[in-house]
Write a structure and sequence with these properties.
Number of domains: 1
Strand content: 15-25%
Helix content: 25-40%
Order of helices and strands: HEEEEHEEHEHEHEH
CATH topology: Rossmann fold
CATH architecture: 3-Layer(aba) Sandwich
Largest sheet: 5 strands, mixed, barrel
Number of strands: 9
Structural class: alpha/beta
CATH superfamily: Nucleoside phosphorylase domain
CATH class: Alpha Beta
């Protein structure tokens, strides 16, 4: 990754009308409907943005959408990238650097995840308070990283405390069940074995997924305040494990999405 690539991507988006967005939003698996609520949208498909990766997952749309939501200028990433698609961690996090360069001051992230904590149920929303990186690498481990920010980034509090408190207050007011816990990010695309679910519980994970952590690391590298939520789409009980059903996971994500949208819109109102 070089700065000129980023500048070429930015020049294209500015020419499209992406004008100084305040908030960046990343929409996870089955959670793309928020993009439909943006006022005066301008769309840029990934395959048209210079140096942008392409979304290869069938339920990820693959476009940046700029517009207004709750009176704030936002840029929404409808469809994200994963290492399991064959991308490296710099590719996966390239859009975060682009949104930051466009001018966002805060970042909201959503994902679909499996519940490791058996007190959590599918259909619940989990607020990320911490994470465990099991991807085997870092998006900051490349030559020249220091030209984008400090090489050694503190990760003692990766998720913004104030935005977390605000979301908890919104959830209480709206009577939304929102858990709080630790998210583990794994490579995928295969789901976990019984033994792997047991391991994840032992090391302190409350939920598991295949995204988010690289984006959070880069956001911290850029000193960009971030908040993230998981929609829990399945329960990962190793003693009562059912075969993975991707259609069911997408269905649960879609049913829970209105609550996530209410949380994100409520948070935008406070900005």
């Amino acid at each position: 990754m070089i700065k000129q690539e980023i500048e070429d991507s930015i020049a294209y988006l500015i020419n499209k009308g992406f004008d100084s967005p305040e908030i960046g939003i990343v929409l996870g698996t089955g959670l793309g409907s928020l993009a439909n609520e943006i006022e005066n949208p301008i769309e840029a498909h990934y395959n048209n943005i210079p140096f942008f990766p392409l979304a290869t997952v069938e339920f990820h749309t693959g476009k940046l959408i700029y517009g207004t939501l709750e009176g704030k200028k936002v840029v929404v990433m409808q469809g994200r990238f994963h290492m399991y698609e064959g991308y490296d961690l710099q590719d996966v996090t390239y859009p975060i650097r682009i949104m930051h360069r466009l001018g966002i001051k805060k970042l909201f992230i959503s994902n679909a995840a499996g519940a490791i904590n058996l007190d959590f149920k599918k259909g619940d929303i989990m607020l990320l308070e911490d994470h465990i990186n099991l991807l085997g690498g870092s998006p900051l481990a490349f030559k020249g990283v220091s030209q984008f920010g400090e090489r050694f980034v503190d990760m003692g509090e990766p998720y913004d405390v104030e935005m977390r408190k605000t979301l908890q207050g919104i959830a209480k007011k709206e009577n939304i069940t929102m858990r709080s816990g630790v998210y583990a990010s794994v490579l995928g695309p295969q789901l976990e074995t019984r033994a792997e679910y047991r391991m994840l519980k032992i090391i302190g994970a409350d939920a598991v997924g295949m995204s988010t952590v690289p984006e959070v690391i880069v956001a911290n590298h850029l000193k960009l305040p971030i908040v993230a939520v998981s929609v829990l789409t399945d329960e990962c009980d190793p003693d009562n494990l059912e075969p993975a059903n991707i259609k069911e996971i997408i269905r649960i994500a879609g049913e829970t999405e209105p609550q996530m949208i209410k949380l994100f819109r409520g948070l935008l109102k406070t900005m």
